[in-house]
TrEMBL record:
One of its GO terms (molecular function) is serine-type aminopeptidase activity. Belongs to the peptidase S46 family. Keywords: Aminopeptidase, Hydrolase, Protease, Serine protease, Signal. It holds the Pfam family Peptidase_S46. This is Dipeptidyl-peptidase. It is an enzyme of class 3 (hydrolase). Residues 1-24 form the signal peptide. Transmembrane segments: none annotated. One of its GO terms (biological process) is peptide catabolic process. Its EC number is 3.4.14.-. InterPro entries: Pep_S46, Peptidase_S1_PA, Peptidase_S1_PA_chymotrypsin.
């Protein structure tokens, strides 16, 4: 792994915290509050209502945490290979490893149904802040107020779903300053169309992750279907014939996952001192285990590959964020900005103190909350299934507004899609993962922990994991359905050991969840709401909300950067791919697939084709797979990464060093035509050009 450049990072952090107003290209803007005046003033560009509507309704959210877009009138969806990787893994077998060797459907009939993939398209956004807050009575304690808000949100979602028949989610913005109802059209019949080889999609591997220059074809295509026929989306994004040039204004429509730019100092200190160290230690444990398991053989490596990539990516990203929070100059400037805001809003001064107290509660309950409620002590898909079944049966007896959020009526269709997925389950892998997580849990909280003793009963983690996995029947989808349909009686009667485990740990899991919801999230939603009022008073709606995995628009220019006296150009070209491979000995992770070598040697492949490029667009995790479009709303690229300096964008934006990294639209078209001979797909993508 290439080390983070400390001197450059410190300079970046200093700039980020001394800029009092938004930087020119800063912002992950909600589509119902776009910075139109800034775009006009800075770039002389005023998007039309049709331009905005087309981009909004072409953008797609993947339920596995990524983004995408419709790029043809026949429901063709473009995203990243690494967003598609979960589906590729589930569709693969030892005999046909699509994750590794790629896939191209020779016809629409040959497109492969994804086992449990859901795509969401935003069709409406409504501000429901007043209605949510109206549920809170004057003088209510924060915990009661939080429950009142949750009940109001559930009611709003249920009413909307009955009215429109779509997916409806009330989203908390500004950590509690506003509440918006997002309405989505869902697609659950989604089929794989194309994915390249892993070697070219993730060329450079973990070593080059978050680095630049890059040479990746990190792209995949799916097709959404409705009633057995290709979907006909309201809008789709046309393909640019010419791509982009240095200095061009570009836009990114995607679903950034989570940022913490509005968080208080106490909240950031919690991340620095408690949250990130805990998470990084867990990630190292999982990464080490997966490397060891993968070393057992080719099939074990195939089974572990996607999980391993996820943990490697998380480890590098969190290390970068933790580095930023350890910088004294950065934290001092954040503290000064907080003091300034508190001085401007003395009537809200106790809000910061209450958040500090809530973070103390979070630190005290962090291990129990993560190991029990988030299930990190029981890392197994079979346990996740068991918990979902047990809780679903129990929650359905509860009034909708009082249920755990993931079991509300508005969420059940998506829950069923995941619960009854036919995705393969590998018993030996499940047992190994579960044994490792049980062992790590015991080592972290201590063998004397009452819940550890309840689960292990003096036995080894390996013995317990083996008995659980060998004894459960939950790999069979029909068994899952029988248990849910049988209700409480079926749950009570079953002797399935995984169900028994889920039931045994549920009281403690629910107890720590209640503490977290009441004394952490409940307090913070109320107090951040008050801080948001202070921000709105000072800056109005020029303050964009932190990322929430909802649709946002970012913009910037295609632009390289200067670092240590070196000029980093904005584009790489295909020829550089082969040069990089040669310089690294043409071995993994720098091996070029034979399909590319053959296309080069035959003279078909254009070596001067732009491959990857960087821009100043403000992106974060979750934006992977987002389309990059130009002023005409045409696709010029595909977001797939950020550079090393983007790793602290969780906490602030800068355009001096941080860059978004994209696959160039021109190399996608070139690869489809010259490398993969995917003529029909290329014609569909480019409109027959």
């Amino acid at each position: 792994m290439t080390p983070i450049r400390r001197t450059a990072l410190i300079g970046l952090l200093t700039l980020m915290t001394t800029t009092p107003r938004l930087l020119a290209d800063e912002g992950m803007w909600a589509f119902n509050n776009l910075p139109l005046e800034r775009l006009e003033a800075k770039y002389g560009f005023e998007p039309t209502e049709e331009w905005i509507a087309r981009l909004r309704s072409s953008a797609v959210r993947f339920n596995n945490g990524g983004s995408g877009s419709f790029v043809s009138p026949d429901g063709l969806v473009m995203t990243n290979h690494h967003v598609a990787a979960d589906t590729l893994q589930k569709l693969s077998t030892a005999e046909a490893d699509y994750y590794r060797v790629g896939f191209l459907a020779g016809s629409r009939e040959a497109e492969l149904p994804a086992p449990d993939l859901e795509l969401n398209v935003t069709v409406a956004i409504a501000d429901v802040t007043d209605r949510v807050n109206a549920a809170v009575e004057d003088g209510m304690p924060d915990a009661e107020a939080a429950q009142a808000r949750r009940s109001a949100m559930a009611a709003i979602e249920q009413e909307a779903s009955k009215e429109n028949g779509l997916r409806n989610d009330v989203v908390t913005l500004y950590q509690g300053g506003q509440y918006h109802l997002y309405t989505y059209k869902k697609y659950t019949d989604v089929r794989l169309v194309f994915a390249p080889e892993f070697e070219i999609a993730f060329f450079g591997g973990d070593e080059d992750n978050f680095e630049y220059p890059r040479y990746c074809l990190d792209v995949a295509f799916f097709r959404a279907y409705e009633d057995g026929e290709p979907a006909r989306p309201e809008h789709f994004l046309p393909w640019s014939a010419d791509g982009s040039e240095a200095g061009d204004l570009v836009f990114v429509a995607g679903h950034p996952g989570r940022t913490s730019r509005l968080n208080t100092m106490a909240h950031l200190e919690y991340f620095r001192d408690t949250g990130f160290p805990f998470l990084l230690d867990l990630i190292r444990n999982r990464e080490s285990f997966l490397n060891e398991y993968g070393a057992l053989g080719e099939e074990q490596a195939r089974q572990a590959k996607e999980d391993l990539f996820g943990y490697q990516n998380s480890r590098k990203a969190r290390l970068g964020g933790h580095e930023g929070l350890q910088n004294e100059a950065f934290m001092a400037r954040k503290a000064e900005a907080e003091r300034s805001l508190r001085a401007q809003a003395p009537e809200y001064a106790d809000a910061w103190d209450r958040i500090a107290a809530s973070r103390a509660v979070a630190a005290e309950n962090l291990a129990a909350y993560n190991f029990l409620e988030r299930g990190q002590a029981f890392e197994s898909r079979l346990f996740q299934i068991a918990r979902t079944i047990a809780r679903l049966v129990a929650e359905q007896k509860t009034p909708n507004e009082d249920r755990l959020r993931e079991y509300r009526e508005s969420a059940l269709a998506s829950l069923d899609l995941a619960l009854y997925s036919e995705a393969p389950i590998y018993p030996r892998f499940e047992a190994a993962k579960l044994a490792n997580s049980l062992d790590y849990w015991r080592a972290t909280v201590g063998a004397d922990d009452p819940v550890v003793q309840l689960v292990l009963k003096g036995r080894s983690p390996e013995e317990v994991a083996r008995e659980l996995v060998e004894g459960t029947r939950l790999a069979d989808v029909s068994v899952r359905k029988q248990l849910v349909e049988g209700g409480p009686e079926a749950i009570k009667a079953t002797d399935d050991p995984m169900i028994a485990l889920a039931l045994a740990v549920d009281p403690e899991s629910r107890a720590v969840r209640k503490v977290w919801e009441d004394q952490v999230e409940g307090v913070e939603s109320a107090q951040y709401g008050r801080i948001a009022e202070a921000l709105f008073r000072a800056q109005g709606d020029a303050v964009y909300p932190d990322a929430t995995f909802t649709l946002r628009l970012a913009f910037g220019t295609v632009k390289g950067w200067e670092e240590d006296g070196e000029s980093i150009p904005p584009y790489t070209v295909v020829e550089g791919l082969f040069e990089k491979s040669r310089s690294e000995g043409d071995v993994e992770p720098y091996h070029v697939p034979e399909s590319w070598i053959e296309a080069r040697d035959s003279g078909r492949l254009g070596l001067d084709t732009p491959m990857n490029f960087v821009s100043t667009a403000d992106i974060i995790g979750g934006n992977s797979g987002s389309p990059v479009v130009d002023r005409d709303g045409e696709v010029v690229g595909l977001i797939f990464d950020g550079n090393i300096h983007s790793l602290i964008l969780d906490f602030g934006y800068d355009d001096s060093l941080a860059r978004a990294v994209s696959v160039d639209s021109r190399v996608i078209a070139e690869a489809l035509g010259s490398v993969y001979r995917a003529e029909a797909l290329l014609r569909e993508l480019t409109g027959g050009r």
